[in-house]
Specification:
single chain; flat; 2 helices
Amino acid sequence: MDKRNALRAGAVTAAATLMMLMTSPAMALTRDDGDDPGSGLSVAQTLGLYVLAPIVLFAIIAGLVMLPSLGKGKKK
């Protein structure tokens, strides 16, 4: 890669980074008309939903994938 392309890539990366840093999350704090958020999740509910549920689903899917090979037994 020559210097000109490297400089162009650096400028594009820097501009994109600055654009992302300048955006403000302040609009996330304003409520919209008809917005009706529910109650928050407890720590136990959050851990169950985002940690335990994916692990359980992974174990179920892995077990279902391994199930056909378990019935065949060892090959010679």
